[in-house]
């Protein structure tokens, strides 16, 4: 393998990320700019704001990624960019913006096309979820196809059998919300500090709580498949928070108003919130465990040579999730692979790496024109 270098750009949700990666898996640089203050202000991702925030920082993020790798565009072999799925405003692959009535590419795609056009570089369109899965092959050199992937993030909850590059069989998906969405809403309702995303805040608070003190039911017990559902658990959590039952249990009227931030909660109130966080996390992850166990059985029937189950996506950076799934996977004779936390959450490295995998197989597009037609902006 004659080494080559790929720039990866990711702007599909609320992080603007870029990275430079060498084809041997060496990460030369990675930069992530997150929209933390926007998240607090709007209590979640607001697509139009996200798009504007991407356009404000994209040039700087890409420049920093190149500088940190001690490279210029001339040293690149190709540019890889996420083209879906994600917030449609942030990804728009169709060059059409109905609001402004002129042709318009998504922020990341536009930047990638500019660079590829001016420097005559091939361009590789990347599926965000494929990138989450394949980055595991960068961190674990021993990870061969076929393998199972559990991809858990804010917008997706997928179980797939990866048979080969580009050959994925969906074993299960969510019928409503993804687990990350449930973490984020639970964090919001519990009044946690949202300057960082909800997941890590719940993970931390849950350590103080007793997971068995509140009983939530495991979703989809009666469905003997590999699909997920988190809407019902979200409702259970909301009801528990609102419930006066907690009063009878001696908690008092704790966090009846979700607007009371946890920082100004009383000691008992904080503990009651921690109990809910712990109970929520236990059941949310139990649901993953059950589905993974079944997925392993299904997948081994199709591909008996499978040796690994990988987890990736933002929620896979959670230590409780990792340790629980490690038990399930080991019990079933496989090995768990999880990329380090900063490669689990959205990042440019996974995009660059997936670009490398595709480029090797000759799957890329020729350089776009150096100048887009006039009506493109
Ligand atoms: O993959 P990602 O960065 O973006 C999407 O593609 O959605 O995942 C973001 C999600 C958010 O819902 C966030 O709360 C969750 O991942 N997350 C976590 C943790 N870190 C991030 N959830 C649970 N525990 C964590 N430590
Ligand atoms: Zn993601």
Short description:
This protein is of the alpha/beta class and 377 residues long. 43% of the residues lie in helices and 16% in strands.
Please explain how this structure is put together.
It catalyses: L-threonylcarbamoyladenylate + adenosine(37) in tRNA = N(6)-L-threonylcarbamoyladenosine(37) in tRNA + AMP + H(+). The structure is a single chain. With 377 residues, the chain is an alpha/beta fold. The chain folds into 2 domains: 144 residues, ATPase, nucleotide binding domain (Nucleotidyltransferase, domain 5, 2-Layer Sandwich), CATH 3.30.420; 198 residues, Nucleotidyltransferase, domain 5, CATH 3.30.420. 43% of the residues lie in helices and 16% in strands. It is built from 13 helices and 10 strands. Strands 3-2-1-4-5 form a 5-stranded mixed beta sheet, sandwiched between helices. A hairpin with a 4-residue loop joins strand 2 and strand 3. Helix 6 packs antiparallel against helix 10 and helix 8 packs antiparallel against helix 10. The longest helix is centred in the last third of the chain and has 36 residues. About 5% of the residues have low confidence. Bound molecules: 5'-O-[(R)-(carboxyoxy)(hydroxy)phosphoryl]adenosine (KG4) and zinc ion. The site of zinc ion has 5 residues, from helix 5. The site of 5'-O-[(R)-(carboxyoxy)(hydroxy)phosphoryl]adenosine (KG4) has 19 residues, from helix 6 and helix 7.
Overall number of structural domains:
2
SSE topology string? EEEHHEHHEHEEEHHHHHEHEHH
Helix content: 40-55%
Span between termini? 38 Å
> Taking Cα atoms only, what radius of gyration do you get, to the nearest Å?
22 Å
Main structural class: alpha/beta
Principal-axes shape call: globular
| Distinct ligands | 5'-O-[(R)-(carboxyoxy)(hydroxy)phosphoryl]adenosine, zinc ion
What would CATH call the class of the largest domain?
A: Alpha Beta
CATH-assigned fold name of the largest domain: Nucleotidyltransferase, domain 5
- Strands, count: 10
Fraction of residues in β-strands: 15-25%
- Number of helical stretches of at least 4 residues: 13
Low-confidence stretches: 87-103
| CATH superfamily descriptor of the largest domain | ATPase, nucleotide binding domain
Q: Overall mean pLDDT score?
A: 88
Q: How would a textbook summarize the main sheet?
A: 5 strands, mixed
CATH architecture of the largest domain: 2-Layer Sandwich
- Strand adjacency order, main sheet: 3-2-1-4-5
């Amino acid at each position: 393998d004659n080494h080559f270098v790929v720039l990866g750009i990711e702007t599909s949700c609320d992080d603007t990320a870029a990275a430079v990666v060498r084809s041997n898996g060496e990460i030369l640089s990675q930069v992530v700019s997150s929209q933390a203050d926007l998240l607090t202000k709007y209590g979640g991702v607001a697509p139009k704001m996200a798009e504007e925030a991407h356009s404000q920082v994209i040039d700087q993020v890409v420049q920093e990624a190149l500088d940190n790798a001690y490279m210029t565009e001339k040293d690149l072999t190709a540019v890889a960019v996420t083209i879906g799925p994600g917030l449609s405003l942030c990804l728009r692959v169709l060059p059409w913006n109905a609001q402004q009535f002129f042709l318009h590419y998504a922020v990341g795609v536009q930047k990638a096309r500019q660079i590829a056009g001016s420097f005559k570089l091939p361009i590789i369109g990347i599926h965000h979820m494929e990138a989450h899965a394949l980055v595991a092959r960068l961190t674990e050199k021993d990870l061969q196809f076929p393998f199972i992937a559990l991809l858990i993030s804010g917008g997706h909850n997928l179980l797939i059998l990866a048979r080969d590059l580009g050959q994925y069989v969906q074993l299960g998906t969510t019928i409503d919300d993804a687990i990350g969405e449930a973490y984020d809403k639970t964090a919001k309702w519990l009044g946690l500090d949202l300057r960082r995303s909800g997941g890590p805040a719940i993970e931390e608070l849950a350590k103080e709580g007793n997971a068995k003190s509140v009983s939530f039911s495991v979703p989809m017990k009666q469905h003997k498949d590999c699909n997920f559902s988190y809407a019902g658990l979200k409702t259970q959590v909301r009801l528990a928070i609102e419930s006066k039952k907690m009063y009878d249990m001696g908690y008092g009227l704790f966090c009846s108003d979700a607007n009371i931030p946890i920082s100004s909660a009383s000691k008992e109130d904080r503990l009651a919130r921690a109990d809910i966080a712990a109970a929520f996390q236990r059941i949310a992850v139990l649901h993953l465990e059950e589905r993974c166990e079944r997925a392993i059985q299904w997948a081994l029937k199709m591909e008996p040579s499978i040796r690994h189950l990988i987890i990736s996506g933002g929620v896979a950076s959670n230590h409780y999730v990792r340790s629980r799934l490690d038990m399930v996977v080991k019990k079933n004779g496989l090995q768990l692979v999880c990329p380090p936390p900063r490669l689990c959450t959205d990042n440019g490295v996974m995009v660059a790496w997936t670009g490398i995998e595709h480029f090797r197989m000759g799957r890329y597009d020729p350089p776009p024109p150096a100048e887009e037609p006039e009506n493109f902006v």
